[in-house]
Amino acid sequence: MVGMNITFYGVRGTIPYSFPKAIKFGSNTACVHCETKNEHIILDAGSGIYPLGKKINDDKPIYIFLSHFHWDHILGINLFDPFFQEGKSIFIVSPNKRRMQNYFKTFFDGVRFPVPLSAVASSPTFLSYDQVKLKGIKIETFENQHPELTYSIKIKHISTKKSLCYCTDNEIGVLKKNPSAYLKFIKFCENSDLGIFDAQYTDEEYQSKVGWGHSSISDVLNLSKEASVKHTLLFHHDPLRPDHELSQIVTQIQEWGKDHFPEAMYDCARERTRFSL
Ligand SMILES: [Zn+2]
Predict the structure, then answer these.
(1) For 2-31, how does the pLDDT look when each residue is reduced to its tens digit (9 = 90+)?
(2) What's the start-to-end Cα distance of the chain, in Å?
(3) Any idea what the CATH number is for the domain that residue 67 is in?
(4) Predicted confidence band at 62 (pLDDT cuts at 50, 70, 90)?
(5) Spacing, Cα 2 to ligand 1 middle (Å)
(6) What's the whole-number mean pLDDT along residues 181-208?
(7) Cβ partners under 8 Å of residue 12, min gap 6
(8) From the centroid of its chain, how far is CA 50?
(9) Distance from residue 1's CA to the centre of ligand 1 (Å)
(10) What distance in angstroms lies between residue 236's CA and the mean position of ligand 1's atoms?
(11) Neighbours of 243 (CB within 10 A)
């Protein structure tokens, strides 16, 4: 493997909620797998990390990057199989390593989950973002606009120069009221090969959700053009949004792309799709 293989295991926000009309895009909450030659990088540990854990069967180190601690981004973590496998090298990287270490203990306290902490054979290491040093990969973060301290995460492959921006739980509508912060975000995303953006709300829905920490579709489209993102994927879909509505959104954003930024590609993220950078 030369570059990075990126696979989506969870694309929804808020809560995993499965219903017959949500088969095409999937129902699991945030989890994106980025595999390189040397490591597994996992972006968030929503319910999608459960099926991902069953797929990882090599000895490469695993770095789980958490954007923040809201439930939809951590709720699958205690069912991640590699934790229970001796010899696995696992790092949990988050905005606050001490807080995460304490949360982790409570996940295995015997009350909320029957498996005790002593069964976690892999003994994960807790790190802050700035403590991660990966050979051939550069990681950058951006502090999002969200009620809880939350970060966007950029992964850049140094030899291929390809980059992935994972920007979830970020309210661009509020961020852009602060022009210097918005400009910083544009610079952060600039020329990304793949941009994954929280776009939970339609423009109409957003009117009654200002301050909730999520973006409207139009705000993401405009940002993607200003930052010249080559391939934009809308992410953190509302749990109740059925497949046919997401398909309509795909049509609308691709039409918008043809008119405003024809060099770029637009789509809605869906489970089990893979991208190679
Ligand atoms: Zn979320």
Answers:
(1) 899 999 999 999 999 999 999 999 999 999
(2) 10
(3) 3.60.15.10
(4) very high
(5) 31
(6) 97
(7) 26, 27, 28, 29, 30, 46, 72, 236, 237, 238, 239
(8) 15
(9) 31
(10) 7
(11) 17
| Sheet order of strands, 137-143 included | 137-143, 151-157, 163-167, 194-198, 231-235, 265-268
> Which domain covers residue 238, as residue numbers?
5-276
The pTM of the full predicted model, rounded to 2 decimals, is 0.97
Ligand 1 mean position, distance from CA 72 (Å): 5
- Taking the centre of ligand 1 as the mean of its atom positions, its distance from the CA of residue 169, in whole angstroms, is 5
Q: What is the pLDDT of residue 243?
A: 97
- CA atoms of 153 and 168, how far apart (whole Å): 9
Each residue's pLDDT tens digit, 38-59: 999 999 999 999 999 999 999 9
pLDDT at 147: 86
Amino acid at 46: G
Distance 98 CA to ligand 1 centre (A): 21
pLDDT tens across 64-74, in order?
Answer: 999 999 999 99
**What is d(CA 107, CA 264) in angstroms, rounded to the nearest whole number?**
42
Q: How far is CA 209 from CA 178, 182, 239, in A?
A: 19, 20, 15
Which pair of tokens denotes residue 122? Answer: 């892999």
CA of 137 to the centre of ligand 1 (A): 26
Number of domains in the chain: 1
Residues with CB under 5 A from ligand 1 (ion): 13, 72, 169
